[in-house]
Amino acid sequence: MSNKTIAFIGTGNMSYAIIGGMIQSGFAPQSIIATNRNEEKLAKVAADFKVKTTTDNIAALQDADVIVLSVKPQMMAQLCETLQTADIDLSTKLFVSVAAGITVARLQEMLGQPVKMVRCMPNTPSLLGLGVSGLFAQGLTSDEHTFIEQVFSSTGIATWVETESQINDIIAVTGSSPAYFFLFMEAIEEKARALGFSAEQARALVQQTALGAAQMAVSQPEISISQLRANVTSKGGTTHAAVEHLKSCNLHTTVADAMDSCITRAQQMEQEL
Ligand SMILES: NC(=O)C1=CN([C@@H]2O[C@H](COP(=O)(O)OP(=O)(O)OC[C@H]3O[C@@H](n4cnc5c(N)ncnc54)[C@H](O)[C@@H]3O)[C@@H](O)[C@H]2O)C=CC1
Ligand SMILES: O=C(O)[C@@H]1CCC=N1
Q1: Domains and CATH numbers, the chain
Q2: Quick one: which atom of ligand 1 is closest to the CA of 41?
Q3: CA dist 265 → 163, 214, 215, 239 (Å)
Q4: When you count CB atoms within 10 A of the terminal residue's CB, does the N or C end of the chain come out lower?
Q5: Which protein residue's CA is at the shortest distance from atom 3 of ligand 2?
Q6: Residue 99 pLDDT > 90, yes or no?
Q7: What is the pTM of this model?
Q8: Does ipTM surpass 0.95 in this model?
């Protein structure tokens, strides 16, 4: 494993998940710095992962080789302004932004110089080593490329895209999509409760079924997902009735439209921020 130090600036949900995945896969806690302006959030990261923590972004910037910018997109300009005014040579650092809707060119503008920048679009299952991260960068050394790949493949699957605009597609397909699955689970859970199952039973039933379905897809790559569905669906049976209802409500089109809304929103943010 590389001896680079990596700092996560703005360690909230997403960076917590990435750090968790890194620690689980063997990164040394002392090579990771987590910052937040909120001491309570840092106390949890320190207790859970034993990484270094600080509320001082500039100290983290000073001490790290790789800087992951992980604040909400709307907070990014303000953060970059403080980093830019620190008396530190930013050209010696490798930056990674996990923010949706801010281009490399705009991030460089926010930092006041053409720093080396990786766009990364991770997702929260990274915490369990089951994440997906889309990566885009230009001009990395092979050492930098290897390090970034080590970090993000430690949290699950890491996949490089050729054009920056594909990062917006990755948001729709994997960055935001855990929420689509949770929404579907919420809907089943809600109906299970309406049918009389206790809250505890409803939760256990829905999560075990989601896990089982995902695990069946993962463990049998030779079987298409639509075939796995067909295997549950007896002709003229109960599943058929439910699936036909979902199809009659245009589920496929609805999902595709939702993913287009996700991409459109990322493009709008690129203009706004
Ligand atoms: N949550 C998700 O599923 C995903 C999020 N992202 C991206 O990750 C970024 C962070 O999102 P979340 O982790 O969900 O947000 P979050 O709000 O949970 O975390 C951001 C943290 O940054 C801290 N913060 C804000 N300004 C700061 C500053 N100047 N210095 C130090 N700390 C500061 C906040 O206290 C907060 O805890 C966003 O840009 C988002 O687009 C990307 C992929 C998935
Ligand atoms: O909702 C968002 O904007 C972020 C990016 C992908 C997941 N969460």
Answers
A1: 6-165 (3.40.50.720), 177-270 (1.10.3730.10)
A2: 37
A3: 18, 28, 31, 35
A4: N
A5: 100
A6: yes
A7: 0.96
A8: yes
